[in-house]
Amino acid sequence: MVQISMKKIKKEKQRFILQQKNNSKATAEVLISHGANINEKDEFGETSLHIAAYNDSKEIVEVLISHGANINEKDEEGKTALHIAAIYNSKETAEFLISHGANINEKTNNGKTALHIAADNNRKETAEFLISHGANINEKDIYGKTALHIAAKNNRKEIVEFLISHGANINEKDEDGKTELHIAAENNSKATAEVLISHGANINEKDEYGQTALHIAAYNDSKEIAEFLISHGANINEKDEDGKTELHIAAENNSKATAEVLISHGANINEKDEYGQTALHIAAYNDSKEIAEFLISHGANINEKDEYGQTALHIATENNSKEIAEVLIECGRIYEKVTLEKVTLNLKLPNTIF
């Protein structure tokens, strides 16, 4: 018998043959019967089994497995045929692979299982199948993320609901201490945030930096998410590890829409961080004129000093923030004028209480 190895067939021709969706079982049988190496890898580290999974060619998968193809062989990214079936929602192929020994919790180089991949690609049917066959629902990738973290990131509401209903931990933390709610806020995934809160997610849970989901919404100027979180009990004066409230974070990132929401719900406008700075100090440091004007118009103390004795005007001057300095000086003049008028009036009417 003439032996034909995959190495002796040009790789581009090999891939052309293998990648045809209409490839027949008979074609595969012929190649194998002539000595084709079914575990030979191409330049991407993919075997014939990977390619068959890509094309959802269940018949070819059956032939390859029956002739000894390594069912858990990985490509250069660490993906097995089962990972690929999860990407393309190939339920029948996945079912066959699992029934023939595919490791359902096998991980890629990034630590992702087939369930992570199904969640990432919104493959609910495949996710259901994997869970029903024993996939670890709370398995973490190398970043400490579960399938629920990934579904939350992509705002996959249906997948999120399914995972929670099957026991996913809604307060699980990744390597940065972020829960799924942090991730939802980070990616402006309001629908997912609603599902998580309705199932008991801790709205004031902190990550490793001491930040809540509301801090993250403020960072991203996600007004809608911020309003939703506040309406469900988020603490608007919660401090992170640097003593910063959500208003500090909003000022730091020029998030005016979120700053407006926070102030309208009672955020302490003159709250200080661990350095004694208010949101106005931070706006001055970042040359955020619009934020500074907004804060002043809502009662920010322009003469408040930080732990170094600096006011917002000192900071604006040091940072050559001319526009901010002008705003602060003008507000100072108005303040002095009003104060002077009030003192004069008090002198004229000593028994009047102001």
UniProtKB/TrEMBL annotation:
- ANK repeats sit at 44-76, 77-109, 110-142, 143-175, 176-208, 209-241, 242-274, 275-307, 308-332
Tagged with keyword Repeat = yes
Q: Which UniProt keywords apply?
A: ANK repeat, Repeat
Q: Does the keyword Repeat apply?
A: yes
> What SUPFAM superfamilies does the record point to?
Ankyrin repeat
* InterPro entries named among the record's database cross-references: Ankyrin_rpt, Ankyrin_rpt-contain_sf
Q: Name one Pfam family in it.
A: Ank_2
Q: What is this protein called?
A: Ankyrin repeat protein, putative
